[in-house]
């Protein structure tokens, strides 16, 4: 390797190192891009109705903030009341369960008594885990200011992108060689359409899950059914793990009324999850975004491993965008073209091995010379 190649290699390694160090900032920027793309598509729909650009953008942003405010108004007050009740109802339930176990020990044969769990020993064994969870909770509360600042940063970036999206798009396109800029512009168009399709499909799936949850929880008579249903629909944005996270508060609140309600909520959420994962999401996402289930799961594991919870939350839109870039650049522009050149080379080899007079062939071994020779023979 010469000096220029060494310098290029060092520059690539340093660039990758810098990108890895600022990976969280890049994820926040991508979150702003996804949010700006969604609001921009909504603004374009308003523009198609005859509104001016500025008013359409303001209306889209106002609807977004209204949805956020309604979400927190539906979620926070009922949960605060129910979880305050949990703080003194759960110990009562544990004491009742412990007395039930003691009563069972007096009725079963003595040989089976050692196999009946002791609740006090279980609590002692779980104490280190509980302390770790509480410590993580305190750490989460202490870092809440950082979370708020990141959310505000995403919102500011979103506003900047919405103000003049074409200017930022042109800056990004100019990072590529001049002969490839038109191609990059087409890829960005496909990314915008796919992200819009993903958002549409996710909203449809969220609505269906929320509707099924509120109907089922209302039939069971679980308190705060609407808040639990809204939370279940929102966490459905995180495939595979989101429904499990939404199950915990629902079972806890149902446990306040009766143990059987908690079991019934578990069965209800299992049915909803199976319906959503096997019927709703495959049909909706097949109409909007074509992603294989295995690819979705692998992408979640990859992004949560390297980028944490934010990577898990953005795993699907990141996978949608990455799929388009890989399909358009690596497959269509590189691999498909390589296959074309390879087939042309194979054709040249076949022609050269044909039983014809080799003195009639031109001296230059090029594709143009071969085509000229074939045309002369014809």
Oligomer: single chain
Structural class: mainly alpha
Q: Tally the helices: what do you get?
A: 13
Mean of residue pLDDT values: 76
H/E topology pattern: HHHHHHHHHHHHH
Number of domains: 1
User: Main β-sheet: number of strands, strand sense, barrel status?
Assistant: none
For the terminal residues, how far apart are their CA atoms?
48 Å
Fraction of helical residues: over 70%
Shape: globular
Contiguous uncertain segments of 5+ residues: 133-142, 345-378
Radius of gyration: 30 Å
Number of strands: 0
Query: What share of the residues does DSSP label as strand, in percent?
Result: under 5%
Give an overview of the whole structure:
With about 375 residues, the protein is mainly alpha-helical. It has one domain (about 25-115, about 135-335). It has 13 helices and no strands. The protein has helices at about 5-20, 25-50, 55-105, 120-140, 145-165, 165-175, 180-220, 225-235, 240-255, 260-290, 295-315, 315-350, 365-375. α2 (about 25-50) packs across α5 (about 145-165), α3 packs across α8 and α9 (about 240-255) runs antiparallel to α10. It is globular and about 85 Å long. One of its GO terms (biological process) is transmembrane transport. InterPro entries: AI-2E-like (IPR002549). It is a multi-pass membrane protein. It is found in: Membrane.
